[in-house]
Structure formats: structure tokens, C-alpha cells
Amino acid sequence: MVLSLAKRVVAESCPERLDPLLAGLYQTVFPAAAGSGGSTAAGVLERVDGVPESLPTGAFAHATLLPDREHLFRELPAEGTVAVFGVSEDLAASIRTAADPAALTLVDDWTSDEARRAVRERAGGPADAVRVNDADSLAVFDAFDDGALDWVYINSTHEYEDTLAELRASADKVADDGYIAGDDYNVFHGVIPAVHQFCAETEWRLAYLTMETHGRRSYALEKVVA
């Protein structure tokens, strides 16, 4: 968990236009954990037989490209019930500004009470409308009734196994007309294979994909409802 936090701190502190240049150094400083077979998309494909090499056409045929994450938040349901896993101060502020959730749950492995308070302050909103949790993401999902969430945003470890588990847990907790969204849809993490595996085994498909130059793109999935 400490290593995952360090990864996120490095990624989020890099100037956006320098991020592609730093990708190689990032992989050198944070190699895949021993025995994991690699945390990159290529590493996951090499070790997990069930991960599709790409999405079928129907899973992305209706997807909309957006300039950046802030535009994505404006497309997601406003004034809804939202849960965010892995929360920086800037992320919390962006969600408040763009979507103004009526109920917001923020989940992270906080390094200190000061860090927790700083995120809470940037999240804004009424005191009784924002929850800040240190719990495991799957335990937090268990606390919600089925269909209770309008959307979630997954920005936690970015590892394949963790992300796939969070996507699966989201499926029951997000309303049929809601969205499952997340960060770092790129080849340097396990997010792409986790998203593709999830879409292959469910009725969820890609609805939005952001196109930031720095490569830390966000995605949003929607459920195909008959």
C-alpha cells in the first residue's frame, strides 16, 4: 500500500507535459513487485489468460472522447451519490466544482490527519454530505445498498487485480443508469486489462474516454440495459 501511494504521489506531482518523458524513469524506480509478473498492461496480458487483447467493437462503439477529466466529471450525473477511491486534493476539488455531488464518499489510505483534513476541505459541500473513510475499498462498497451510487471514480492502486475487484464490486452498487469511472487508463498500469476483462464478462461498455496529452487518461463505463 505504501508503494502504491508513492506511485500516485510521483505521478500526480509530475508536470503534465513532462509526464510522457518520465514514464521510463517511473518504470525503473517502481518496477513490478517480485512474482507479480508485471503490473503494466503487457505484463498482465502475459500472465493472465482470460484478459482479452482488445475490446469487441460493441464495447466501445458508442464511446465519446473528451478533452480531460474535468469535462468527464461534467458529463456524469450532477448532484448525485458518488464514491471516490484514491483521492488527492485536486481530484476532490474538481469533482465538487464539476459535479457538485449531493453525497460524496472519499476513500484513501491517508498518510496523516492533516492530509485527510486537506482533502475534506477541498471536497467542500455540507458537513453531513461528505464522508471520509480509511477503510478498504471493498469494505466500503459493502456498506452501500445495491444501486445506491450514481457513479464511482476508481483511482486507487491501479494494479490489475485490485482494479478488477473494484470494478466487479461497483457493478451491483451503481445504478443501472449510472457510471463506473476511473483514472490511469494507460499502458503503464493494470487498468486497461482490468477494464477490458470487466467489459468482457459483463454488460458494461465504454461510454467516455479522456484524451490528455500526459497520458493519465480517465474512462467511464455505462451498463447496457435492455
Tell the overall outline. Answer: globular
List SSEs in N-to-C order. Answer: HHHEHEHEHEHEHEHEE
Helix content: 25-40%
Percent range for β-strand residues: 15-25%
Q: Main sheet, how many strands, which sense, barrel?
A: 8 strands, mixed
**Uncertain segments of ≥5 residues (pLDDT<50)?**
24-28, 30-36
Rg (C-alpha, Å): 17 Å
Count of helical stretches: 9
List the helices and strands and how they pair.
Elements: H1 2-13, H2 19-29, H3 41-47, E1 64-66, H4 69-75, E2 81-85, H5 89-99, E3 103-107, H6 113-123, E4 130-133, H7 137-142, E5 149-154, H8 160-173, E6 174-182, H9 191-201, E7 204-210, E8 219-223
Parallel strand pairs: 1-7, 2-3, 2-5, 3-4, 5-6
Antiparallel strand pairs: 6-8, 7-8
Helix pairs in contact: 4-5, 5-6, 8-9
Short summary:
With 226 residues, this protein is of the alpha/beta class.
Question: Notable features of this structure?
Answer:
8 strands, alpha/beta, 8-stranded mixed β-sheet, single chain, globular, 226 residues
Provide an overview of this structure.
By secondary structure, the chain is of the alpha/beta class. The protein is built from nine helices and eight strands. It has helices spanning 2-13, 19-29, 41-47, 69-75, 89-99, 113-123, 137-142, 160-173, 191-201; strands at residues 64-66, 81-85, 103-107, 130-133, 149-154, 174-182, 204-210, 219-223. It has an eight-stranded mixed sheet with strand order 1-7-8-6-5-2-3-4, with helices on both faces. The N and C termini lie far apart (39 Å). Residues 24-28 and 30-36 have low confidence and may be disordered.
